[in-house]
Amino acid sequence: MRGFRNLGVQELTFPREGVAILGGNAQGKSNLLEAIYYLETLRSFRGSGDAQLVAFGCTVFRIEGDLAGDADPVQVAAAFDRGSRRKRVYLDGDPQDTLAAGLGRVGAVIFSPDDIRMINGPPAERRRFLDVVLSLNVPGYVEMLQRYRRALAQRNAALKASEGPTALEGWSRMLASSGSVLVCARARWIAERAGSFSAHYEAVSGAEVAALSYRPSVDEDETLASTEARILSALVDAERRDRRLRTTTVGPHRDEMAVVLEGADREVREFGSGGQRRTAALALRLVEADTVRDVRDPDPLVLMDDVFAELDQARSDRLLARIEGGRIGQVILTAPKEADVRVRRDALPRWQIEGGRVAA
Amino acid sequence: MNAIERAGKELSRLPGIGPKTALRLVYHLLKADPARIAQLTGALTDLADRVRPCERCGNYSDSDLCDVCSNPRRDHTTVCVVEEAYEVGAIERTGQYPGVYHVLGGKLSPLDGVGPESLRIAGLRTRVAEEGVREVILATNASMEGEATAVYLESILRNVQSLRVTRLARGIPVGSDLEYVDGTTIAEALLGRREM
Fold first, then answer.
1. Domains of chain B
2. Rounded-to-integer distance, Cα B58 and Cα B118, Å
3. Which of A166, A180, A181 would you mutate first to test chain B, the one with the most B CBs within 10 A?
4. pLDDT tens across B169-180, in order?
């Protein structure tokens, strides 16, 4: 990597089982994980814009990863130029026409203290999680998401320009055709994974049970075509209100994915304790790891950004058991000090990081 | 600003020409026979003075009606709707299309401030109402905006008596390997498959 945050120019070869990276605050632990995970999603897991990732005094960053797993070795590289605001992705050195071509090559899952935002935050945070997981694991999803967002921007602009009903209908139909793919993919993934979410939650919490449920703005139907028809008729029904508010008020951009505490039938987001919220966020990441394993068939590369600091002893022990009990690949974790290294405690070599420089 | 810089600046406003290429063109022209510059300026002046949209279809033309609209051997009951005038040329080069055209002058894009009233749509309705048109072929691009434009046109033409409204087929490019075609295109091609 070069020019990424405070990491300078470095080339690192990670041991097959993984590594524990120790360092104080603001030394670059999270930056290193951010750089690695950038190759999976082509954006910052911390929600930073690409321009913010470029090191002070540089105009370009570039990250290259040589993936030497059991599958065919591949080199993924990503580069961003702050001057031209251009981002490019390369596979085995060949520049790709679209960023989508480079998505999800690493097969990584990241656990971070910021994950709590997925539970505490507004529905947009949970939609973002869903969209990232599905973009990486469902073919064609990311293209439909882009089409949907573009159609939504056009329909909203048409509403602001007070265009006639016929002109609006064109955009509504575009929204329905791309939106139906999103709704069906989300419904299917949540239905398939709800069981393992509850199992992960129960295992980490020790006793309580929670359920994952999809609350779409417009319900999915039996088929893609009938879902499309439903979304279209919901858009038509909402037209008067949409015109008044000058924005599109129904559709998958208003979907919610709720985590509900069983028995109490209450949403963790509103009624959960700190521990319950953290557990829910961890369970979502564990489900994501399952998806990577099932769909892309590598044991996922697990990145853990100082996650145990926030958990009580009992929950951390159970999380550990859950992670180590499943099939996972390489583990790269960060921690401020030795006592916080808990995963594969004996197996992981220790590296230090200081001022962005990693020393093995 | 001297003459060389001015010429360079004007040329660099053209699409696909940066400042360096523009200057190279300027020096090329300076070295060439002065008559060549006169020919070029004459041709450009003619573009501005003589070329205008065809009154009927909106394609560029030297006269009131373009070559296609004024040709009695063309099938004037079939109208192919395209976004831009240069797309007429693309279809004409196939030599497979006997009908006439209608150039919209763009596509719907509220984000760019382009609504139905900014396009040559009223003219299309008039033609359909007055010229005995039997089929309108919607040949707008397969982009999001092109599709929305086609949907819009279909809905305003839907209720015209005995008018057929068709859309250009989408699918696998001729001569390409299935293996290299993207998933969205293959899905479209499957939906649009036909009997053999």
1. 3-50 (1.10.8.420), 71-167 (3.40.1360.10)
2. 13
3. A166
4. 888 888 888 888
